[in-house]
């Protein structure tokens, strides 16, 4: 399945751009990175994975010896979703920002171009 690797979804409060691999299906993808932008320019990153995909990655690392032989998986912006697909991931973000607000630090932030850098 050949498609555009960047898929942007607009919500009432933010836009989210998902970075798909060329063989990913937007309806079933289980491992995808995303960049979220609030209407005021604030931005966050997120990595979405299903439990099945997490197990697959950890099993692979166990076989390769990475991460102390697959002992752990560390992803600072990880959001675990029960099901795959961009719709489920977007719904998770809508709920997350609905609960914590658009000023949250619940996901890693990146600087807005107008932010001062020390």
Structural description of this entry:
- This protein has 118 residues and is α+β, with helices and mostly antiparallel strands.
- The chain has one domain.
- Helix content is 29%, strand content 26%.
- The chain contains three helices and six strands.
- It has helices at 51-64, 66-70, 86-100; strands at residues 6-10, 14-19, 31-38, 43-49, 78-80, 109-110.
- Strands 1, 2, 3, 4, 5 and 6 form a six-stranded mixed β-sheet that branches.
- It is globular.
- The mean pLDDT is 92.
Any idea how many domains? 1
Please report the number of helical segments: 3
Show unreliable segments.
none
Which bin fits the share of residues in helices?
Answer: 25-40%
Distance between the termini: 45 Å
DSSP, total strands:
6
List SSEs in N-to-C order: EEEEHHEHE
**Strand percent estimate:** 25-35%
Descriptive labels:
alpha+beta, 26% strand, 6 strands, 29% helix, 118 residues, six-stranded mixed sheet, single chain, 3 helices
Task: Give the helix/strand layout.
Layout: E1 6-10, E2 14-19, E3 31-38, E4 43-49, H1 51-64, H2 66-70, E5 78-80, H3 86-100, E6 109-110
Parallel strand pairs: 4-5
Antiparallel strand pairs: 1-2, 2-3, 3-4, 4-6
